[in-house]
């Protein structure tokens, strides 16, 4: 198998349908309003009785919206999840609000300022602070200070706070709220520029939802506030995210834009929602870097993805026997390994072993003997040409037997099933062969002896010759009483049975070639007892509780940071199940009953109820731990013609080992990051063929916002250059380029750069690039990698 890069997954029905909108400004902002009204009557002479102008009247009304505190129900989701730890170095934290109008309900302007006729900036911002940046929260645990709204707005030396008139405080001014104080220089570095605020908030309209992991998308309209800061790429760092209120902070923002805020001043703001998380960067490049390394070596050459130890060269070393070398090499290439082996005579040699996972399709298991496989020796092959044993199937039989004996509950269930089977077979055999319990010659294909009324035929025949009447008289009139003569003896005319006239037949003679109706009756009577046994054996078929050394006997076949594909040997699975079920077979009768009535042994068993894997995948990599919801999707056929294959099992066998079993051999396998709902951020692209990755933005189709499909193979910036997207990032307080440098009015800002790149790709909507367009470009969807089997 080999990788086919840049092949997109085929489009399927969307899991949700959403639209991004720039904003949703309310008709009127929140606050206290006074209405004055008066009336004049110009040109009308009212005399001395009425004035020409009424005295003005007025009233006060209030438009309410959260101001210094935010109710929990107004926060739909926050990403990354609070106290989570992962590689978030390409993720822009965001918070989703249930009220789509909320970010535009208040103003940045101080109380008493003149209202602008231009589109208003939002009054909310999501700020991200690393450890050591906030004096009141040095560990970045999202610690806040509780104070009242009055205290928040009260003057204090060295503190700048929102400029809001007391009469504009909504509700109780003594109600508690949460606040943070930010050093002026840190605030000026982290806060978005005033003209950038609107581009970091947009509205999301969701119309369909099937539910995803992470932030669960729900139908409705929401507002989303996105931070402008990316976590550190090189060191593990804890971050505190604060959704802050900027109402009445225009002058503070103006000074921040001008770089006039210094460390000797603190900015006090209300924190409406706060949480923290840990970003642990993956220097190997995260999902794309890990997968790239699993499939390709340092030179970009395809790795051998088959589960086997490294195959030696085709040419034997000098002096080696060519035939012996070739035979051994072929064995290794098929997935066999050589293990130490002790003969019954005490001699030590080595033998071939191969578990259920093979590098090529296995030879079929020979037909079992009449009594079934009863020992490992029957399943051990001997290569006479080389004097070596192949112990794979025999080891599977022994392992199945050991696992069954180790489970006392299973052993008891299986033994009880066989005991009941013997009893039921005996009863049914007697009914079939008893005189008068059948319909010989009547043309009825179903013996009544096996139905719920087994004696119907006998009574009919006895009634026909008067035997029933004599029987009744004898039972009600004892012999000699009242001069009633003794009844004549019953007639003993032989009646032909199924297997002879009046002949008794043992169950074993019937089981060699059982009548179909006998078999059906046995299965019906034993089916309920067979259910838990079949379930246990199905777990065995899916390699549950199998020692890992039996699956992968040599670590060289699955080294650290590797991905391996394999076929499943059905003969090995058959031998495994045969060894487990054989613990309760004590003779030919038990073996025959199992063949007749056991769903796990019947030759025409229901494959839909007992699916057996035919292929699979093993991953041994840190990717298993870093991406716990890794999706593995197998398909038959290629491209648009492919159809999904059932995944029978996907389990983590250890901290870094993932096992996936498929119901059929796939032509394509798609590895994908787990869907995490909706998140925002940037992407990674490998710089040439080195192991370094640069930040980029994978571009999406602006002209088709309904789907927002990626523009295949196109990213920004292009060409990538030595610094990738870093040239469009501002330094954070530590001097690391991490803050989006949007600058809408600058031709060298990120917004203009993205718009120009999209326009060059023919995207007509790039001319009106705004918050919704930026959100679409920064939307992160799960990355995937396609592995294809070469066409034969």
What's the helix and strand layout?
Blueprint: E1 2-3, E2 16-21, E3 31-37, E4 57-63, E5 75-79, E6 85-86, E7 91-92, E8 94-97, E9 124-130, E10 145-148, H1 149-153, E11 159-160, E12 176-183, H2 184-190, E13 201-209, E14 220-226, E15 237-245, H3 250-257, E16 266-279, H4 286-295, H5 322-333, E17 337-342, E18 348-353, E19 357-358, E20 381-383, E21 388-390, H6 392-406, H7 408-433, H8 456-464, H9 467-476, H10 507-511, H11 516-541, H12 548-551, E22 562-568, H13 570-581, H14 588-597, E23 615-620, H15 623-626, E24 631-636, E25 643-644, E26 647-654, E27 657-662, E28 668-672, E29 679-681, E30 683-686, E31 693-700, E32 710-716, E33 729-731, E34 737-740, H16 750-760, H17 771-778, E35 779-780, E36 784-788
Parallel strand pairs: 6-16, 11-16
Antiparallel strand pairs: 1-36, 2-13, 3-4, 5-8, 7-29, 8-14, 9-15, 10-12, 12-16, 13-14, 15-16, 17-18, 19-22, 20-21, 22-23, 23-27, 24-25, 24-28, 26-27, 28-36, 29-35, 30-31, 31-32, 33-34
Helix pairs in contact: 2-3, 6-13, 7-11, 7-14
Textual characterization of the structure:
With 792 residues, the protein is α+β, with helices and mostly antiparallel strands. Helices cover 23% and strands 24% of the residues. The chain is built from 17 helices and 36 strands. Strands 6, 9, 10, 11, 12, 15 and 16 form a seven-stranded mixed β-sheet that branches. A hairpin with a 6-residue loop joins β30 and β31. α6 packs parallel to α13 (570-581) and α7 (408-433) packs antiparallel against α11. The protein is elongated. Mean pLDDT is 82; it is low at 1-15, 209-216, 435-449, 451-462, 478-505 and 604-608.
């Amino acid at each position: 198998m080999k990788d086919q890069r840049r092949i997109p997954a085929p489009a399927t029905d969307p899991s949700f349908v959403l639209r991004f909108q720039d904003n949703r400004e309310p008709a009127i902002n929140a606050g206290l309003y006074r209405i004055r009204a008066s009336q004049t009557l110009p040109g009308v002479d009212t005399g001395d009785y009425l004035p020409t102008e009424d005295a003005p009247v007025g009233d006060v009304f209030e438009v309410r919206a959260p101001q210094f505190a935010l109710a929990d129900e107004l926060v739909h989701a926050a990403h990354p999840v609070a106290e989570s730890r992962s590689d978030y170095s390409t993720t822009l934290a965001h918070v989703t609000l249930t009220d789509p109008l909320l970010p535009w309900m208040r103003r940045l302007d101080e109380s008493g300022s003149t209202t602008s006729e231009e589109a208003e900036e939002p009054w909310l911002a999501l700020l991200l602070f690393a450890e050591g940046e906030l004096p009141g929260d040095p560990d970045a645990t999202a610690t806040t200070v509780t104070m009242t709204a009055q205290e928040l707005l009260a003057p204090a030396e060295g503190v700048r706070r929102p400029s809001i008139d007391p009469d504009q405080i909504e509700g109780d001014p003594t109600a508690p709220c949460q606040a943070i104080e930010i050093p002026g220089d840190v605030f000026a570095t982290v806060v978005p520029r005033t003209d950038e605020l609107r581009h970091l908030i947009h509205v999301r309209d969701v119309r369909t939802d099937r539910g995803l992991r992470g932030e669960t998308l729900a139908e409705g309209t929401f507002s989303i506030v996105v931070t402008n800061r990316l976590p550190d790429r090189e060191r593990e760092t804890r971050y505190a995210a604060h959704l802050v209120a900027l109402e009445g902070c225009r002058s503070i923002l103006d000074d921040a834009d001008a770089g006039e805020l210094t460390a000797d001043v603190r900015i006090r703001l209300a924190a409406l929602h706060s949480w923290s998380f840990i970003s642990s960067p993956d220097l190997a490049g995260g999902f794309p870097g890990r997968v790239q390394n699993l499939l390709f070596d340092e030179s970009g050459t395809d790795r051998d993805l088959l589960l086997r130890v490294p195959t030696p060269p085709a040419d034997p070393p000098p002096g080696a026997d060519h035939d012996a070398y070739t035979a051994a090499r072929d064995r290794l290439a098929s997935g066999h390994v050589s293990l130490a082996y002790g003969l019954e005579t005490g001699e030590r040699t080595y033998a071939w072993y191969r578990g259920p996972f093979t590098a090529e399709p296995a030879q079929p298991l020979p037909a079992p003997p009449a009594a079934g496989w009863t020992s490992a020796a029957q399943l051990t092959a001997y290569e006479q040409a080389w004097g070596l044993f192949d112990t794979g199937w025999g080891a599977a039989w022994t392992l199945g037997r050991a696992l069954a004996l180790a489970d006392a509950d299973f052993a008891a269930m299986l033994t009880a099933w066989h005991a009941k089977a013997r009893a039921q077979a005996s009863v049914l055999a007697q009914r079939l062969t008893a005189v008068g319990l059948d319909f010989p010659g009547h043309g009825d294909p179903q013996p009544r002896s096996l139905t719920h009324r087994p004696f119907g035929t006998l009574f009919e025949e006895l009634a026909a010759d008067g035997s029933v009447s004599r029987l009744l008289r004898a039972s009600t009139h004892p012999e000699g009483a009242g001069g009633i003569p003794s009844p004549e003896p019953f007639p003993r005319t032989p009646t032909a049975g199924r297997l002879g006239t009046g002949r008794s037949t043992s169950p074993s003679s019937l089981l060699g070639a059982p009548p179909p109706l006998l078999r059906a009756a046995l299965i019906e009577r034993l089916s309920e007892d067979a259910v838990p046994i079949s379930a246990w054996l199905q777990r065995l078929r899916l390699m549950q509780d199998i020692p890992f050394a039996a699956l992968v006997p040599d670590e060289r076949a699955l080294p650290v940071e590797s991905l391996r594909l394999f076929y499943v040997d059905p003969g090995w699975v058959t031998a495994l199940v045969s060894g487990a079920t054989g613990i309760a077979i004590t003779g030919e009768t038990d073996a025959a009953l199992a063949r007749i009535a056991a769903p796990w042994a019947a030759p025409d068993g229901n494959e839909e109820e007992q699916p057996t894997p035919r292929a699979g995948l093993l991953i041994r990599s840190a990717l298993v731990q870093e991406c716990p919801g890794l999706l593995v999707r197998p398909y038959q056929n290629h491209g648009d013609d492919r159809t999904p294959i059932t995944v029978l099992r996907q389990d983590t066998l250890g901290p870094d080992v993932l096992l996936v079993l498929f119901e059929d051999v796939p032509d394509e396998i798609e590895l994908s990051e787990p869907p995490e709902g909706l998140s925002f951020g940037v992407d990674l692209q490998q710089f040439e063929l080195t192991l370094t990755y640069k930040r980029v933005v994978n571009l999406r189709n602006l002209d088709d916002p309904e789907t927002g499909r990626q523009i295949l193979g196109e990213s920004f910036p292009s060409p990538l250059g030595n610094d990738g997207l870093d040239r469009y990032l501002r330094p954070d307080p530590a001097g690391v380029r991490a803050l989006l440098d949007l600058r809408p009015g600058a031709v060298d800002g990120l917004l203009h750069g993205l718009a120009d790149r999209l326009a060059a790709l023919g995207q007509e909507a790039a001319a009106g690039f705004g918050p919704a367009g930026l959100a679409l470009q920064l939307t992160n969807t799960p990355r995937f990698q396609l592995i294809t089997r070469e066409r034969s």
